[in-house]
Amino acid sequence: MVTIEEAHKIIKDQKVKLKTETRKLSDCLGFSISEDINAPFDMPSFDNSAMDGYALCGISQEYTIIGEVAAGDKKEFELKNGEAVRIFTGAKVPKDTSAVMMQEKTRVAGNKLTLEQMPKEGQSIRRKGEELTQGQLVFEKGYSITPAGIGLIGSLGIQNVEVFRKPLINLITTGNELIEPGKPKAEGQIYESNSYALASACEQFGFKCGNKKQIEDDFEAIKSGIKKSLETADVLILSGGISVGDYDFVKQALEENGVEEQFYKVFQKPGKPLYFGRKEDKFVFALPGNPASSLSCFYVYVLPFLYQLSGSKKNGMERYSFPISHDFENRGDRPSFLKAKISNGEVEILDGQGSSMILSMAQGNALAFIDAETSLKKGEQVQCLLIL
Ligand code: AMP
Ligand code: MG
User: Fold this and answer.
1) According to the model, what pLDDT value does residue 259 have?
2) Any idea where the MoaB/Mog domain is (predicted)?
3) Nearest Cα residue to atom 17 of ligand 1
Protein backbone atom coordinates (compact mmCIF):
# COMPACT_ATOMS: atom_id res chain seq x y z
CA MET A 1 0.00 0.00 0.00
CA VAL A 2 1.29 3.46 -0.90
CA THR A 3 0.08 6.93 0.02
CA ILE A 4 -1.51 9.22 -2.54
CA GLU A 5 1.71 11.26 -2.68
CA GLU A 6 3.86 8.16 -3.15
CA ALA A 7 1.58 6.92 -5.93
CA HIS A 8 1.88 10.28 -7.71
CA LYS A 9 5.63 10.26 -7.33
CA ILE A 10 5.95 6.74 -8.72
CA ILE A 11 3.89 7.80 -11.73
CA LYS A 12 5.80 11.03 -12.23
CA ASP A 13 9.19 9.31 -11.97
CA GLN A 14 8.49 6.84 -14.78
CA LYS A 15 11.03 7.18 -17.54
CA VAL A 16 9.03 7.60 -20.70
CA LYS A 17 10.14 7.82 -24.31
CA LEU A 18 8.29 10.61 -26.04
CA LYS A 19 7.66 10.30 -29.76
CA THR A 20 7.11 13.25 -32.04
CA GLU A 21 5.18 13.84 -35.22
CA THR A 22 4.40 16.67 -37.62
CA ARG A 23 0.77 17.73 -37.62
CA LYS A 24 -1.19 20.13 -39.72
CA LEU A 25 -2.06 23.31 -37.86
CA SER A 26 -5.78 22.55 -38.02
CA ASP A 27 -5.13 19.20 -36.37
CA CYS A 28 -3.10 20.30 -33.38
CA LEU A 29 -5.58 21.22 -30.69
CA GLY A 30 -4.48 19.81 -27.33
CA PHE A 31 -1.16 18.49 -28.63
CA SER A 32 2.05 19.69 -27.01
CA ILE A 33 4.78 21.22 -29.10
CA SER A 34 8.00 19.23 -29.19
CA GLU A 35 10.28 22.17 -29.96
CA ASP A 36 10.27 25.83 -29.01
CA ILE A 37 8.52 28.16 -31.43
CA ASN A 38 10.21 31.52 -32.02
CA ALA A 39 8.68 34.40 -33.92
CA PRO A 40 9.90 34.20 -37.55
CA PHE A 41 9.18 37.93 -37.98
CA ASP A 42 7.98 40.95 -36.06
CA MET A 43 4.30 40.96 -35.19
CA PRO A 44 2.70 43.06 -36.48
CA SER A 45 5.17 43.03 -39.34
CA PHE A 46 4.32 46.61 -40.37
CA ASP A 47 2.77 49.68 -38.68
CA ASN A 48 -0.96 49.47 -39.31
CA SER A 49 -4.17 51.18 -38.41
CA ALA A 50 -6.20 50.05 -35.41
CA MET A 51 -9.25 51.93 -36.69
CA ASP A 52 -11.30 52.85 -39.68
CA GLY A 53 -10.54 56.55 -39.98
CA TYR A 54 -7.80 58.85 -41.22
CA ALA A 55 -4.02 58.65 -41.11
CA LEU A 56 -2.77 62.13 -40.25
CA CYS A 57 0.54 63.83 -40.86
CA GLY A 58 1.33 66.40 -38.14
CA ILE A 59 -0.85 67.27 -35.17
CA SER A 60 -3.65 69.72 -35.89
CA GLN A 61 -7.41 69.79 -36.39
CA GLU A 62 -7.66 70.32 -40.13
CA TYR A 63 -6.20 68.28 -42.95
CA THR A 64 -6.42 67.80 -46.68
CA ILE A 65 -7.33 64.28 -47.74
CA ILE A 66 -5.01 63.08 -50.52
CA GLY A 67 -6.00 59.43 -50.98
CA GLU A 68 -7.07 56.15 -49.50
CA VAL A 69 -5.41 52.98 -48.24
CA ALA A 70 -7.34 49.80 -47.42
CA ALA A 71 -6.26 46.58 -45.67
CA GLY A 72 -3.96 44.60 -47.94
CA ASP A 73 -3.07 47.62 -50.18
CA LYS A 74 0.55 47.96 -51.16
CA LYS A 75 0.22 51.70 -51.99
CA GLU A 76 2.86 54.00 -50.54
CA PHE A 77 2.01 57.60 -49.75
CA GLU A 78 4.43 60.42 -49.08
CA LEU A 79 2.50 62.48 -46.54
CA LYS A 80 3.29 66.14 -45.91
CA ASN A 81 2.35 68.09 -42.83
CA GLY A 82 -1.41 68.83 -42.88
CA GLU A 83 -2.23 65.95 -45.19
CA ALA A 84 -4.31 62.88 -44.39
CA VAL A 85 -5.36 59.66 -46.08
CA ARG A 86 -8.55 57.70 -45.61
CA ILE A 87 -7.49 54.45 -43.91
CA PHE A 88 -9.12 51.23 -42.75
CA THR A 89 -8.39 48.79 -39.93
CA GLY A 90 -5.33 46.67 -40.63
CA ALA A 91 -4.12 48.84 -43.52
CA LYS A 92 -0.46 49.76 -43.60
CA VAL A 93 -0.08 53.34 -42.32
CA PRO A 94 1.85 55.61 -44.68
CA LYS A 95 5.37 56.64 -43.68
CA ASP A 96 5.32 59.91 -41.65
CA THR A 97 1.86 59.22 -40.20
CA SER A 98 1.65 60.95 -36.81
CA ALA A 99 -1.62 59.40 -35.69
CA VAL A 100 -4.83 57.80 -36.86
CA MET A 101 -8.16 59.38 -35.96
CA MET A 102 -11.23 57.17 -35.87
CA GLN A 103 -13.86 58.23 -38.38
CA GLU A 104 -16.51 58.74 -35.70
CA LYS A 105 -14.50 61.76 -34.48
CA THR A 106 -14.23 63.47 -37.87
CA ARG A 107 -16.18 65.60 -40.34
CA VAL A 108 -15.48 65.57 -44.05
CA ALA A 109 -16.39 68.15 -46.67
CA GLY A 110 -14.93 67.39 -50.09
CA ASN A 111 -11.25 66.78 -49.45
CA LYS A 112 -11.30 68.79 -46.20
CA LEU A 113 -11.05 66.82 -42.97
CA THR A 114 -11.91 68.40 -39.63
CA LEU A 115 -11.30 66.55 -36.38
CA GLU A 116 -13.64 66.87 -33.42
CA GLN A 117 -10.71 66.41 -31.05
CA MET A 118 -6.96 66.91 -31.18
CA PRO A 119 -5.07 63.75 -32.10
CA LYS A 120 -2.37 62.38 -29.81
CA GLU A 121 0.97 61.41 -31.33
CA GLY A 122 0.91 57.70 -32.29
CA GLN A 123 -2.73 57.15 -31.45
CA SER A 124 -4.53 54.16 -33.03
CA ILE A 125 -1.38 52.92 -34.75
CA ARG A 126 -0.41 49.29 -34.11
CA ARG A 127 3.36 49.38 -34.21
CA LYS A 128 5.57 46.89 -36.00
CA GLY A 129 6.76 44.32 -33.44
CA GLU A 130 4.61 45.62 -30.58
CA GLU A 131 3.30 42.10 -29.85
CA LEU A 132 6.32 40.00 -30.80
CA THR A 133 9.74 40.76 -32.15
CA GLN A 134 11.53 38.53 -34.62
CA GLY A 135 13.31 35.65 -32.83
CA GLN A 136 11.37 36.08 -29.61
CA LEU A 137 10.35 32.85 -27.85
CA VAL A 138 6.63 32.45 -28.41
CA PHE A 139 5.96 28.97 -27.04
CA GLU A 140 8.25 26.75 -25.06
CA LYS A 141 8.48 23.02 -25.80
CA GLY A 142 5.65 21.29 -23.91
CA TYR A 143 3.14 24.08 -24.48
CA SER A 144 -0.24 22.47 -24.91
CA ILE A 145 -1.89 24.05 -27.90
CA THR A 146 -5.15 25.93 -27.24
CA PRO A 147 -7.46 27.50 -29.84
CA ALA A 148 -5.74 30.86 -29.23
CA GLY A 149 -2.38 29.08 -29.62
CA ILE A 150 -3.51 27.68 -32.96
CA GLY A 151 -4.52 31.20 -33.99
CA LEU A 152 -1.15 32.61 -33.00
CA ILE A 153 0.86 29.84 -34.67
CA GLY A 154 -1.18 30.39 -37.83
CA SER A 155 -0.55 34.12 -37.69
CA LEU A 156 3.17 33.33 -37.63
CA GLY A 157 2.66 31.61 -40.98
CA ILE A 158 3.41 28.13 -39.62
CA GLN A 159 1.36 25.40 -41.27
CA ASN A 160 3.02 22.24 -39.98
CA VAL A 161 3.70 21.91 -36.28
CA GLU A 162 6.13 19.56 -34.55
CA VAL A 163 4.30 17.99 -31.62
CA PHE A 164 4.57 15.05 -29.26
CA ARG A 165 2.50 12.02 -30.18
CA LYS A 166 -0.35 11.23 -27.85
CA PRO A 167 -0.51 7.80 -26.27
CA LEU A 168 -2.93 5.25 -27.65
CA ILE A 169 -5.23 3.92 -24.98
CA ASN A 170 -7.01 0.57 -24.89
CA LEU A 171 -9.71 -0.32 -22.41
CA ILE A 172 -10.67 -3.66 -20.89
CA THR A 173 -13.62 -4.04 -18.55
CA THR A 174 -14.03 -7.24 -16.58
CA GLY A 175 -16.98 -8.83 -14.83
CA ASN A 176 -19.44 -11.69 -15.39
CA GLU A 177 -22.32 -9.49 -14.32
CA LEU A 178 -21.78 -6.89 -17.02
CA ILE A 179 -23.93 -6.53 -20.11
CA GLU A 180 -24.00 -3.90 -22.77
CA PRO A 181 -26.53 -1.05 -22.48
CA GLY A 182 -29.45 -1.66 -24.82
CA LYS A 183 -29.59 -5.42 -24.19
CA PRO A 184 -32.27 -6.95 -21.94
CA LYS A 185 -31.00 -7.34 -18.40
CA ALA A 186 -31.38 -10.59 -16.47
CA GLU A 187 -31.46 -10.96 -12.70
CA GLY A 188 -28.03 -10.29 -11.19
CA GLN A 189 -26.73 -8.45 -14.23
CA ILE A 190 -25.82 -4.78 -14.45
CA TYR A 191 -25.10 -2.59 -17.41
CA GLU A 192 -21.45 -2.09 -18.23
CA SER A 193 -20.88 1.64 -17.94
CA ASN A 194 -17.26 2.16 -16.94
CA SER A 195 -15.93 1.82 -20.46
CA TYR A 196 -18.27 4.58 -21.60
CA ALA A 197 -17.32 6.87 -18.73
CA LEU A 198 -13.59 6.21 -19.09
CA ALA A 199 -13.50 6.48 -22.87
CA SER A 200 -15.37 9.76 -22.76
CA ALA A 201 -13.13 11.08 -19.98
CA CYS A 202 -10.16 10.31 -22.25
CA GLU A 203 -11.89 12.04 -25.10
CA GLN A 204 -12.77 15.06 -22.98
CA PHE A 205 -9.07 15.74 -22.55
CA GLY A 206 -8.16 14.98 -26.14
CA PHE A 207 -7.05 11.35 -25.76
CA LYS A 208 -8.34 8.55 -27.93
CA CYS A 209 -9.36 5.07 -26.94
CA GLY A 210 -8.42 2.58 -29.61
CA ASN A 211 -9.87 -0.69 -28.52
CA LYS A 212 -12.61 -1.44 -25.98
CA LYS A 213 -13.16 -4.97 -24.78
CA GLN A 214 -15.46 -6.56 -22.20
CA ILE A 215 -14.16 -9.83 -20.70
CA GLU A 216 -15.71 -12.26 -18.24
CA ASP A 217 -14.14 -13.14 -14.91
CA ASP A 218 -12.11 -15.93 -16.44
CA PHE A 219 -8.39 -15.99 -15.78
CA GLU A 220 -7.30 -17.28 -19.19
CA ALA A 221 -9.66 -14.95 -21.05
CA ILE A 222 -8.38 -11.95 -19.11
CA LYS A 223 -4.78 -13.02 -19.58
CA SER A 224 -5.10 -13.36 -23.33
CA GLY A 225 -7.19 -10.19 -23.56
CA ILE A 226 -4.41 -8.26 -21.82
CA LYS A 227 -1.76 -9.80 -24.09
CA LYS A 228 -3.65 -8.79 -27.21
CA SER A 229 -4.51 -5.33 -25.96
CA LEU A 230 -0.91 -4.59 -24.98
CA GLU A 231 0.22 -5.24 -28.54
CA THR A 232 -1.34 -1.97 -29.70
CA ALA A 233 -1.73 0.16 -26.57
CA ASP A 234 0.69 2.61 -25.03
CA VAL A 235 -1.60 2.68 -22.02
CA LEU A 236 -3.99 -0.09 -21.07
CA ILE A 237 -6.76 0.80 -18.67
CA LEU A 238 -8.58 -2.08 -17.00
CA SER A 239 -11.64 -1.82 -14.83
CA GLY A 240 -12.74 -4.32 -12.22
CA GLY A 241 -11.25 -7.59 -11.00
CA ILE A 242 -8.32 -5.93 -9.23
CA SER A 243 -9.59 -6.30 -5.67
CA VAL A 244 -9.23 -9.31 -3.36
CA GLY A 245 -12.30 -11.36 -4.38
CA ASP A 246 -12.05 -14.94 -5.62
CA TYR A 247 -12.91 -13.78 -9.13
CA ASP A 248 -10.46 -10.88 -9.23
CA PHE A 249 -7.92 -12.19 -11.75
CA VAL A 250 -6.53 -9.00 -13.23
CA LYS A 251 -3.40 -8.65 -11.11
CA GLN A 252 -2.22 -12.21 -11.71
CA ALA A 253 -3.10 -12.00 -15.39
CA LEU A 254 -0.95 -8.86 -15.65
CA GLU A 255 1.95 -10.56 -13.88
CA GLU A 256 1.76 -13.54 -16.23
CA ASN A 257 1.94 -11.11 -19.12
CA GLY A 258 5.21 -9.74 -17.80
CA VAL A 259 3.73 -6.49 -16.53
CA GLU A 260 5.73 -5.23 -13.58
CA GLU A 261 3.87 -3.77 -10.66
CA GLN A 262 4.83 -0.17 -9.84
CA PHE A 263 2.31 0.09 -7.05
CA TYR A 264 -0.78 -1.75 -5.89
CA LYS A 265 -3.28 -0.29 -3.43
CA VAL A 266 -3.36 3.33 -2.44
CA PHE A 267 -4.32 4.54 1.00
CA GLN A 268 -7.32 6.55 -0.14
CA LYS A 269 -11.08 6.48 -0.48
CA PRO A 270 -12.44 5.66 -2.97
CA GLY A 271 -10.08 3.65 -5.15
CA LYS A 272 -7.97 1.69 -2.68
CA PRO A 273 -7.30 -1.30 -4.98
CA LEU A 274 -5.72 0.87 -7.69
CA TYR A 275 -2.88 -0.84 -9.58
CA PHE A 276 -0.19 0.69 -11.79
CA GLY A 277 2.30 -1.36 -13.77
CA ARG A 278 4.56 -1.25 -16.79
CA LYS A 279 5.94 -3.59 -19.38
CA GLU A 280 8.82 -1.93 -21.19
CA ASP A 281 7.28 1.20 -22.76
CA LYS A 282 3.70 0.18 -22.12
CA PHE A 283 1.78 1.14 -19.03
CA VAL A 284 -1.17 -0.37 -17.25
CA PHE A 285 -3.67 1.12 -14.87
CA ALA A 286 -6.05 -1.39 -13.33
CA LEU A 287 -8.87 0.58 -11.79
CA PRO A 288 -11.37 -0.73 -9.26
CA GLY A 289 -14.68 -1.62 -10.89
CA ASN A 290 -16.94 0.56 -8.79
CA PRO A 291 -18.02 3.29 -11.19
CA ALA A 292 -17.17 6.27 -8.97
CA SER A 293 -13.84 4.73 -7.93
CA SER A 294 -12.74 4.03 -11.46
CA LEU A 295 -13.58 7.48 -12.73
CA SER A 296 -12.05 9.21 -9.70
CA CYS A 297 -8.85 7.22 -10.20
CA PHE A 298 -8.86 8.24 -13.84
CA TYR A 299 -8.95 11.94 -12.95
CA VAL A 300 -6.49 11.72 -10.11
CA TYR A 301 -3.88 9.32 -11.54
CA VAL A 302 -4.44 8.32 -15.16
CA LEU A 303 -5.02 11.77 -16.62
CA PRO A 304 -1.81 13.29 -15.20
CA PHE A 305 0.10 10.35 -16.67
CA LEU A 306 -1.55 10.74 -20.08
CA TYR A 307 -0.37 14.35 -20.09
CA GLN A 308 3.10 13.18 -19.08
CA LEU A 309 3.16 10.72 -21.99
CA SER A 310 2.14 13.47 -24.38
CA GLY A 311 5.03 15.72 -23.42
CA SER A 312 2.71 18.30 -21.93
CA LYS A 313 3.58 20.83 -19.27
CA LYS A 314 -0.02 20.47 -18.18
CA ASN A 315 -0.37 17.78 -15.58
CA GLY A 316 -4.07 17.70 -14.75
CA MET A 317 -3.15 18.03 -11.08
CA GLU A 318 -4.24 21.62 -10.54
CA ARG A 319 -6.16 21.94 -7.31
CA TYR A 320 -8.27 24.98 -6.53
CA SER A 321 -9.17 26.07 -3.06
CA PHE A 322 -12.77 26.89 -2.16
CA PRO A 323 -14.49 27.58 1.16
CA ILE A 324 -16.83 24.78 2.15
CA SER A 325 -20.51 25.81 2.33
CA HIS A 326 -21.34 23.70 5.39
CA ASP A 327 -19.74 21.97 8.36
CA PHE A 328 -18.34 18.58 7.37
CA GLU A 329 -16.71 15.67 9.08
CA ASN A 330 -14.66 13.01 7.30
CA ARG A 331 -14.87 10.15 9.79
CA GLY A 332 -13.05 7.71 7.53
CA ASP A 333 -9.48 6.65 8.26
CA ARG A 334 -8.29 7.29 4.70
CA PRO A 335 -7.80 10.60 2.84
CA SER A 336 -10.80 11.03 0.57
CA PHE A 337 -11.69 12.39 -2.83
CA LEU A 338 -15.30 13.37 -2.29
CA LYS A 339 -17.86 14.12 -4.91
CA ALA A 340 -18.56 17.80 -4.65
CA LYS A 341 -20.18 20.73 -6.32
CA ILE A 342 -18.71 24.17 -6.63
CA SER A 343 -21.19 26.99 -7.06
CA ASN A 344 -21.20 30.65 -6.11
CA GLY A 345 -17.57 30.40 -5.05
CA GLU A 346 -18.23 27.69 -2.45
CA VAL A 347 -17.88 23.94 -2.43
CA GLU A 348 -20.55 21.57 -1.18
CA ILE A 349 -19.82 17.93 -0.37
CA LEU A 350 -22.63 15.98 -1.99
CA ASP A 351 -24.75 13.16 -0.60
CA GLY A 352 -24.12 9.70 -2.03
CA GLN A 353 -20.39 9.18 -1.54
CA GLY A 354 -20.45 5.37 -1.94
CA SER A 355 -17.79 4.03 -4.33
CA SER A 356 -20.46 2.57 -6.53
CA MET A 357 -22.49 5.79 -6.66
CA ILE A 358 -21.97 7.85 -9.74
CA LEU A 359 -25.11 9.99 -9.50
CA SER A 360 -23.45 12.54 -7.22
CA MET A 361 -20.41 12.61 -9.50
CA ALA A 362 -22.59 13.20 -12.53
CA GLN A 363 -24.38 16.05 -10.74
CA GLY A 364 -21.24 17.53 -9.26
CA ASN A 365 -18.29 19.25 -10.86
CA ALA A 366 -15.36 18.59 -8.52
CA LEU A 367 -13.58 16.11 -6.34
CA ALA A 368 -12.89 17.63 -2.94
CA PHE A 369 -9.77 16.36 -1.23
CA ILE A 370 -10.28 15.94 2.50
CA ASP A 371 -7.83 14.30 4.88
CA ALA A 372 -8.80 11.34 7.04
CA GLU A 373 -10.53 12.04 10.34
CA THR A 374 -10.95 15.74 9.69
CA SER A 375 -13.67 18.11 10.87
CA LEU A 376 -14.26 21.18 8.78
CA LYS A 377 -16.26 24.22 9.75
CA LYS A 378 -18.28 26.14 7.16
CA GLY A 379 -15.97 28.59 5.42
CA GLU A 380 -12.78 26.53 5.80
CA GLN A 381 -10.79 26.03 2.61
CA VAL A 382 -10.97 22.74 0.71
CA GLN A 383 -8.70 21.67 -2.14
CA CYS A 384 -10.72 20.72 -5.21
CA LEU A 385 -9.95 19.05 -8.49
CA LEU A 386 -12.32 20.31 -11.15
CA ILE A 387 -14.05 17.61 -13.17
CA LEU A 388 -16.17 19.70 -15.47
P1 AMP B 1 -14.91 -5.28 -8.99
O2 AMP B 1 -13.88 -4.21 -8.87
O3 AMP B 1 -14.76 -6.11 -10.20
O4 AMP B 1 -14.98 -6.06 -7.72
O5 AMP B 1 -16.29 -4.51 -9.14
C6 AMP B 1 -16.76 -3.68 -8.12
C7 AMP B 1 -18.18 -3.25 -8.40
O8 AMP B 1 -18.20 -2.47 -9.56
C9 AMP B 1 -19.15 -4.36 -8.65
O10 AMP B 1 -20.38 -4.04 -8.03
C11 AMP B 1 -19.28 -4.43 -10.14
O12 AMP B 1 -20.49 -4.94 -10.56
C13 AMP B 1 -19.12 -2.98 -10.52
N14 AMP B 1 -18.53 -2.86 -11.84
C15 AMP B 1 -17.39 -3.45 -12.23
N16 AMP B 1 -17.10 -3.14 -13.51
C17 AMP B 1 -18.09 -2.34 -13.93
C18 AMP B 1 -18.36 -1.69 -15.16
N19 AMP B 1 -17.53 -1.83 -16.21
N20 AMP B 1 -19.46 -0.92 -15.26
C21 AMP B 1 -20.28 -0.79 -14.19
N22 AMP B 1 -20.07 -1.36 -13.00
C23 AMP B 1 -19.00 -2.13 -12.87
MG1 MG C 1 -15.61 -7.81 -10.82
Assistant:
1) 98
2) 170-308
3) 289
For the segment 6-23, what is each residue's pLDDT rounded down to a tens digit? 999 999 999 999 999 999
Question: Ligand 2 centre and the CA of 229: distance in Å?
Answer: 19
- Which residues are bridge partners to 170 per DSSP? 236
96 has which bridge partners? none
Instruction: Quote the CATH superfamily of domain 48-126.
Output: Molybdopterin biosynthesis moea protein, domain 3. (2.170.190.11)
More confident site: 75 or 195 = 195
* Ligand showing the shortest atom-to-Cα distance for residue 294: 1
Common-topology check for domains 4-17+166-309 and 20-43+130-164: no
- The structural domains of the chain, with segments of one domain joined by +, span 4-17+166-309, 20-43+130-164, 48-126, 319-386
Q: What is the CATH number of domain 319-386?
A: 2.40.340.10
Q: Which residues pair with 236 in a beta bridge?
A: 170, 284
Distance of alpha carbon 301 from the chain centroid: 15
Summarize pLDDT for 305-341 with one digit per residue, the tens: 999 999 999 989 899 999 999 999 999 999 999 999 9
Nearest CA to ligand 1 atom 7: 290
DSSP string across 312-354? -S--S---EEEEBSS-EEE-SSS-EEEEEEEETTEEEEPS---
Looking at residue 245, what is its pLDDT?
94
Report how far ligand 1's centroid is from the alpha carbon of 168 (Å).
24
Q: What number does CATH give the domain 4-17+166-309? A: 3.40.980.10
- Residues in contact with ligand 1 by the CB-under-6-Å rule are 173, 175, 177-178, 190, 192-195, 239-241, 243, 245, 288-291, 356
Relative to the CA of 193, which ligand 1 atom is closest? 20
Nearest-angstrom CA–CA distance, 205 and 29: 10
Given this model, what pLDDT does residue 148 score? 98
The mean per-residue pLDDT over the stretch 27-33 comes to 97
Fold exhibited by the domain 20-43+130-164: Molybdopterin biosynthesis moea protein, domain 2 (3.90.105)
Atom of ligand 1 nearest to the CA of 195: 19
Substitution site in 194, 357, 358 for ligand 1 pocket (most atoms within 8 Å of beta carbon): 194
Name the closest ligand to CA 292: 1
CA 306, 255, 212, 174 dihedral sign is: negative
- pLDDT recorded at residue 275: 98
